[in-house]
Amino acid sequence: MLTKVKAFIETNPWHAELLELRSIVLQSDLEESFKWRFPVYTWNNKNIVGLGTTKESYGLWFFQGATLSDPLQVLVNAQVGKTQAMRHWRFKEGKGLDKKNILSYIHEAIDNQRSGNIVVFEKEKKLVMPPLLKDALVKNPNLKTCFASFSKSKQIEFAEYILEAKRENTKVKRLDKVIPMIRQGIGLNDKYKKK
Question: Given this model, what pLDDT does residue 98 score?
């Protein structure tokens, strides 16, 4: 067992359940690795499935789960509208997993990858500047410099935050909220992201 995988499992409240789930996954043709702080299993250097946990459950994350037939109707999209391909299968009970069905899903995921039956991700979002923000940047070169220092994805977050408001006065309030953040180099969603 890889050192990081071992540490992940041994320090997890779902320790015994993860050991059982891992032993099932390893009965497939997948190779074990550790990415993004989780055990990840690959085929031909392509991510197929990962082990994950929450306080309430443990389970499998299928990187191309949207392509699976899901005969048991167990796969869930954790972030509808954001997650394109990944689906997870949650388990809330203790030991006693259905090895046959789990392996069936894993083998289908491998077969889909092998045959090229995968989700092709949408192209990167474009930055659409709301007129209010654009005018503020034109009027204040220092603000424009600060805005330009953000990554494209953070610039898009600011722009979408303003664009999504339906009423004009809400757009103005949102602009007033983000201007100090832009000046301070704080992204719109930084407080929600782990450091």
Answer: 93
> Tokens 């990944």 belong to which residue?
86
Question: Tokens 């719109």 label which residue?
Answer: 188
Q: Which residue has the higher pLDDT, 181 or 83?
A: 181
Could you list the beta-strand ranges (E) of the chain: 31-35, 38-43, 46-53, 58-62, 75-76, 87-91
8 A C-beta contact, residue 101 and residue 72: yes
Name 102's Cβ contacts closer than 8 Å, sequence gap at least 6: 21, 24, 25, 60, 89
Residue 195: the pLDDT is 46
Cα torsion angle, 112, 114, 115, 121, sign: positive
Instruction: Tell the burial category of 85 from Cβ atoms under 10 Å away from its Cβ (0-12, 13-18, 19+).
Output: middle
The letter for the amino acid at 162 is I
Q: What does the alpha-carbon distance between residue 7 and residue 1 come to, in Å, rounded to a whole number?
A: 10
CATH classification of 3-115 is 3.90.1150.200, yes or no?
yes
Q: What is the pLDDT of residues 58-112, one digit of tens each?
A: 999 999 999 999 999 999 997 777 788 999 999 987 767 999 999 999 999 999 9
Domain ranges of the chain: 3-115, 131-190
Tell me the whole-structure pTM to 2 decimals.
Answer: 0.63
